[in-house]
Each structure stands twice: as C-alpha cells, then as structure tokens.
Amino acid sequence: MNNAKASVQKPKTLGMVQVALFAALIIILAFTPFLGYIPLGFTRATIIHIPVIIGCLMLGPKQGAVLGFIFGLTSLINNTINPTATSFVFSPFYELGEIHGGVGSIIICFIPRILVGVVPYYVYHGLRRILKDGKSQMTAALGAAGLAGALTNTLLVMNLIFIFFKDAYASANNVASGAVYSFILTIIGINGVPEAIVAAVLTALIGRILLKTKYAVH
C-alpha cells in the first residue's frame, strides 16, 4: 500500500516541481529590466509567453493555464508598479488623469495569458494527428503551436483593449477615436508579428529537445 501511494505521489511531486521551475523562469523574465517586458512607449513587447507555451506542451493544458495565470499576474504587477502611458488597460490600480482601469483590465491581463497556456497544446497535438510522423513534421507542429500561442496573446489583448478601452486608449496615444483600430493593427504588425515569429522558432528548437525527455506529457 505504501509503495502504491509513493508511486502516485512521485509524478505529482515531479509535476509540481516542473511547474515551479517554469513559474520561476517567468518571474525572472518579468522582473528583470528590459528582458521579459520591453517598453516601447505605446506598449510593451514580451517574450514571457515562450516559457508558457513550452510549459504547456511539456506539462499539459492544466499546468499551462497555471503558468499563463502567473504570466498575467506579472503583467498586472509590472503595470501597477512600473507603468507606461497605457498601463491602465492591464491594471485596475493605475490611473492616467481621468483615465483608469477597471474590470476590463483584469480580463485583458489574465484571459489571453491563461489561453496562451492552453491553445498551443491542442494546436500541437491536433497537427500531430494530421501530419505523418517525422522530425520535420514534429518541428512544423511545434512551430505552429508557438505561433498560435503568441498570436493568441497579441490578438486577444489588442482586440479586448479595443472593446473595453477604445476611447481611453486613443486618448492615451494621441490618436483620433475613429483611427484607433488602425493604430491597434499597426501595433500588431510591428510588435505582434515579430513576437509570433520568435515564439515559433524558439518553440520548435527548444520543444524538440524537451519533448523527447521522459518528463514531458505525451
């Protein structure tokens, strides 16, 4: 009986340690200046979604969602204590004149980031079922998962900003209200597309190594 309990506890303990390691990496990236969050004035570029994506591929979507939540939490903290002009869209505790965050800030901060830890897992395994076995097919599936994870973050965040903070976001960026979505599309192109490409490449390179270990969920 004791042996049976020990055999059950070992995978759980290992899983907790793996989540803790990925969480530690996310926190280090988030709170190292100009590393995890790179201020661009009108927004912040990020690479923190990459360990979230790789973590969900290795550990599964439930653990990935936890890592995504931690990603969102670091964003909330960063935008509260080290704000930019548009930090109100991520933090209900930050105000810019009469502009302030709210419930929408919490939704923007957490929902896209949690989904970053879920979507890539299903993209990868869906493609693995469709594509034939092989190194190139695995690489393609991993790259697509990385791309999907990064775009999930960027597209959901920017479109939710438009839904919840259209006028405030336009005012903070000195953009006409009618042109704010064009401005958002520009940010997606300048910021989101390179992030997605980097995520695809790194997920393919790192994922190929980590998914071959006995510690990955298959």
Quick description:
With 218 residues, this protein is mainly alpha-helical.
Task: Compile the SSE list and pairings.
Elements: H1 2-31, E1 37-39, E2 44-46, H2 49-59, H3 61-81, E3 95-96, E4 99-100, H4 103-116, H5 119-130, H6 135-172, H7 180-210
Antiparallel strand pairs: 1-2, 3-4
Helix pairs in contact: 1-2, 1-3, 2-3, 2-6, 2-7, 3-4, 4-6, 5-6, 6-7
3D structure, described in words:
The chain is built from seven helices and four strands; from the N terminus they run H-E-E-H-H-E-E-H-H-H-H. With 218 residues, it is mainly alpha-helical. It has a two-stranded antiparallel sheet with strand order 1-2. Helix 2 (49-59) packs across helix 7. It is globular, with a radius of gyration of 19 Å. Residues 3-8 have low confidence and may be disordered.
Q: Enumerate the strands of the largest sheet in spatial order, edge to edge or round the barrel.
A: 1-2
Work out the number of β strands: 4
Q: What's the tally of helices?
A: 7
Number of domains: 1
Q: What would you report as the Rg, rounded to the nearest angstrom? A: 19 Å
Q: Estimate the helix proportion, in percent.
A: over 70%
Largest sheet: 2 strands, antiparallel
Low-confidence stretches: 3-8
CATH architecture: Orthogonal Bundle
What is the CATH third-level topology name?
Answer: Arp2/3 complex 21 kDa subunit ARPC3
Distance between the termini: 28 Å
Overall residue-averaged pLDDT value = 88
| Percent strand | under 5%
